[in-house]
Amino acid sequence: xxxASPHLQERSTLWNNLTRLAQIVDGPWNLMGDFNVVLRPHxxxxxATTRINRGxxxxxxxxxxxxxxxxxxxxxxxxxxxxxLFERLDRSLENYDWRIQFHEASIIHLNPLKSDHVPLLxxxxxxxxRRPTRRPFKFEASWLTHEDFxxxxxxxxxxxxx
Length: 162
What we know:
Elements: E1 2-3, H1 8-24, E2 30-34, E3 44-45, H2 54-65, E4 69-70, E5 80-82, E6 85-87, E7 90-94, H3 96-101, E8 106-109, E9 120-123, H4 149-159
Parallel strand pairs: 1-2
Antiparallel strand pairs: 2-7, 3-6, 4-7, 5-6, 8-9
Helix pairs in contact: 1-2
């Protein structure tokens, strides 16, 4: 979980620390949280300026240098609001290994609660392989009437080591 400071210098320190960490991470890696900066101009609306600023460029450089992917989202395009200013400050970024392993994962921007940020829901695929569970044995009394039942039962019982 990431919380990036609203102050440019402190964010720069975080980007540097995370870049060093990315160099030693081996395997799937996901960063999710409030980055307090946008990646693209269309992720900001209602400001006097919607162009990319210095903090946005530093964040873009960090994302590119660490080879991170934005997982995307469904829901409202903005995750933060103050007055008439809307921005997408919250997101999920992952490396290629994470994306390959969790290729069906998605982010949902939920409805805002009591915060100026919307909650993010990281949703994994519904069809994850589950451990096989043993179904309870069911016996049908009608099986007893079948002429081959005793031999079949004996053969299967012995085959399963019972």
